[in-house]
Write a structure and sequence with these properties.
The complex is a heterodimer of chains A (449) and B (213).
Chain A (H helix, E strand, L loop, with lengths): L1 H22 L6 H10 L1 H8 L11 H20 L1 H7 L10 H8 L4 H30 L6 H21 L7 H4 L4 H26 L14 H20 L16 H20 L5 H10 L6 H26 L5 H9 L12 H32 L4 H41 L8 H13 L1
Helix pairs in contact in A: 1-4, 1-16, 2-4, 2-15, 3-4, 4-14, 4-15, 4-16, 5-7, 6-7, 6-14, 7-12, 7-14, 7-16, 8-18, 10-17, 10-18, 11-17, 12-13, 12-14, 13-14
Chain B lengths: L6 H18 L3 E3 L4 H5 L5 E13 L5 E7 L2 E7 L11 E11 L2 E6 L5 E4 L8 H6 L1 H4 L3 E9 L5 E5 L6 E5 L11 E11 L4 E5 L6 E4 L3
Parallel strand pairs in B: 1-2, 4-6, 10-12
Antiparallel strand pairs in B: 2-3, 2-5, 3-4, 5-6, 5-7, 8-9, 8-11, 9-10, 11-12, 11-13
The chains are: A mainly alpha (449), B alpha+beta (213).
């Protein structure tokens, strides 16, 4: 009925607005957002209960809440590029975005970074719709590739790690061995292996560590780890070297190479889809796969690709919920608590999934424009603030968020992550080697459990 | 030495400190399965102890146990089923507390997070022994059944329905005859030559006791 569609579209827009608001909050991960929204589900459904009389859909109020949740989650994946770019403050899934976005920010192209990320996320949503049915038939019946993906994933990740280390071009000891000499190149690879190993050991040590928020918030340990490795380390280094933040250029749109952009969206979407299948594999692991498929110095392609990973992951986690009744994220867990999830084992998708996907589409389009607008606001205002003060403020803010979410033990993790994160910056090797913090525990879990 | 080289030992030192701190932050052991207590630990890793009162293996190969601690019960979900866990066993499980469809449960990820203390005085049935014989191999078990085919140095233990039969190496006590119910305590072994399991109750610490005596 049209009236059902009207309310679904309305709720999707409201959800997108809420998600855009929460996306700029540093440290607020989508999983935490889902828990917070779940806690208000009762009030939400109570307020919307009168709409059930107008609708032809069973449990319409509950369905509307589910649409609201999914829309907020989708919008959140769009907007969290803004604090990542302008404050160097990523969440665990956008850690690798800090590197290219910060680089663009220092060239006066911060708004462009936000625009590229939004483009990647929006493009990914459209591509995900196109891939949904093939995914359903390949991963589920009759393709049944679910088990195969599970089996080959650890070896793919091991190969990826070796390729990342082996292709290191940095030469930390070029003064001693001579630039471009074999010893200099090998020392770069060796140092990359050291960073990977240290961050990998760090990841294993904190894997089962328990932390507690002093104010009862959800306590994700990856937040201080990744914030230290990729956020505060870069900010501290910037502080020491005091770069001048150039004036930020703001355009309504930017030129892109259609073919390259499409390739970036495709690699990002496929990477995000792959990790949505595996339990324990966060979108951050997908960003590593996507990043490995991009050229190191192609920041624009990296922005599009990595953003596509996060959005594709949140899309296909929804599909996994209906295809296998498996919950791969906080959003899926929250949906399972409020909605009865029918198994999608036929050609036609369940109506509830269709309504949720409407919410995703509406939120994606809405968020694309809102993210670009927010990026413009930040880009214009950031130039009016002394960059040194901004960095100090950002570091203090990150520290405060780490403490509030994870307490004193989280601060220790944050400090350790920051120290390890400074290593590749100080020695001139790729910072993505610090992703050993995720890769090593994930590989070990997939191989031995 | 340039200051940047200090980052290497500093990183290693901090990881070392973190290792000890992580070791100190062992999961909380809950003394009760009371729902109010459990609810306070939602999404946290805890350790729970209890006696298994129900066990069910699901179609997907996982296992649901109901454990009791004092007066309260809670469900424990094992990702990988352990058919050797039976009612009466005491388990200590480490996992995350979650609420699944209105019920609190402990989600145990791997079998390393589970410690099973089998009840040594618990008597098991032949069916239970047959469901996973490898689990009991070379262990001392206490099994009940009916006596059939008595011989001077061995006899067979069967279920009432006659579905399972186990050879017991031991002479029958004088007060036991065919079709009597007995409890046999002995060592469960695999006979490679005869391709079958048997119960050896010949040693001094084993016994064959008529049920009801």
């Amino acid at each position: 009925m049209l009236i059902d569609l009207f309310f679904i579209l309305l709720v999707a827009c409201i959800g997108a607005l809420v998600g855009c608001g929460t996306g700029v909050v540093v440290g607020l991960h989508i999983n935490n957002l889902s828990l917070i929204l779940l806690s208000i589900s009762g009030i939400f459904c109570y307020v919307l209960a009168p709409l059930e009389a107008l609708s032809g859909v069973d449990n319409f109020a509950v369905l509307l809440f589910a649409v609201f949740l999914v829309s907020a989650a989708t919008a959140h994946t769009f907007v969290n590029i803004v604090p990542t770019t302008f404050l160097g403050a990523p969440n665990e899934d956008s850690a690798l975005l800090v590197l290219p976005s910060h680089s663009l920010l220092l060239k006066g192209r911060g708004h462009e970074a936000v625009w590229l990320s939004s483009l990647g996320s929006l493009g990914s949503v459209f591509l995900c719709f196109a891939l949904l049915l093939p995914f359903r038939f390949l991963i589920g019946e009759p393709g049944n590739l679910y088990g195969l993906v599970w089996e080959i994933m650890p070896f793919v990740l091991i190969a990826l790690s070796l390729v990342l280390i082996g292709t290191e071009h940095g030469e930390p000891f070029r003064e001693k061995f001579g630039k471009n000499s074999i010893q200099s190149r090998l020392s770069g690879i060796g140092f990359a292996a050291l960073v990977f190993s240290l961050s990998g050991i760090f990841g294993v040590v904190i894997f089962n560590m328990q932390v507690q928020s002093p104010i009862g918030l959800p306590a994700p340990l990856l937040f201080p780890a990744l914030t230290g490795l990729f956020g505060s380390s870069a900010l501290l280094y910037s502080l020491r070297h005091e770069p001048l933040l150039p004036e930020q250029h703001v355009e309504s749109a930017y030129e892109v190479d259609f073919g390259k952009s499409l390739k970036s969206i495709l690699t990002g979407t496929l990477s995000g889809t792959l990790v949505s299948i595996l339990p324990g594999a966060t979108p951050a692991a997908g960003t590593i796969v996507a990043r490995a498929l991009q050229r190191e110095n192609d920041e624009r392609a990296a922005m599009i690709s990595i953003s596509a990973v996060n959005t594709a992951n949140s899309f296909f986690v929804l599909a996994m919920l209906f295809m296998f009744l498996k919950m791969r994220s906080g959003v899926a867990l929250a949906l399972d608590k409020v909605l009865i999830i029918p198994l999608w084992d036929t050609l036609l998708m369940p109506p509830s999934l269709a309504y949720l996907l409407i919410g995703v589409l509406v939120a994606a389009v809405f968020s694309y424009f809102l993210t670009c607008w927010l990026g413009k606001i930040f880009a214009v205002r950031i130039g009016k603030i002394a960059y040194r003060k901004l960095i100090i403020g950002a570091i203090c803010f990150l520290g405060a968020m780490v403490f509030l979410f994870t307490g004193p033990k989280g601060m220790l993790v944050f400090l350790t992550g920051t120290t390890i994160g400074l290593l590749p910056i100080a020695f001139g090797v790729r910072r993505s080697h610090s992703m050993g913090v995720l890769l090593v525990p994930l590989i070990l879990t997939l191989l031995f459990n | 030495m340039k200051p940047k080289y200090l980052l290497i030992p500093l990183s290693a030192g901090l990881i070392f400190i973190l290792y000890f701190v992580a070791g100190l932050s062992n999961p909380v052991e809950l003394n009760s399965c009371d729902p109010t207590t459990i609810a306070n630990y939602e999404n946290r890793i805890v350790r729970l102890r209890g006696t298994v009162t129900e066990s069910r293996i699901t179609d997907t190969g996982s296992q649901l146990l109901q454990i009791k601690n004092r007066e309260d019960t809670v469900m424990v979900f094992l990702q990988n089923a352990d058919p050797g866990i039976s009612e009466g066993d005491v388990i200590v499980a480490k996992g995350k507390i979650q609420n699944y469809r209105g019920e609190w449960e402990l989600l145990v990820a791997t079998d390393k997070d589970l410690e099973v203390k089998r009840n040594p005085d618990r008597t098991i049935s032949l069916q239970e022994l047959a469901s996973c014989p490898a689990r009991w191999e070379q262990m001392k078990v206490k099994v009940t059944g009916s006596v059939t085919n008595p011989h001077p140095h061995y006899f067979y233990l069967t279920t009432k329905e006659g579905t399972h039969r186990l050879k017991v190496l031991a002479p029958l006590p004088t007060n036991v005859v065919a079709n009597d119910s007995v409890t046999v305590e002995g060592f469960f072994y695999w006979d490679k030559e005869k391709f079958s399991y048997y119960l050896d109750a010949r040693s001094g610490d084993c016994s064959v006791i008529k049920v009801g005596c």
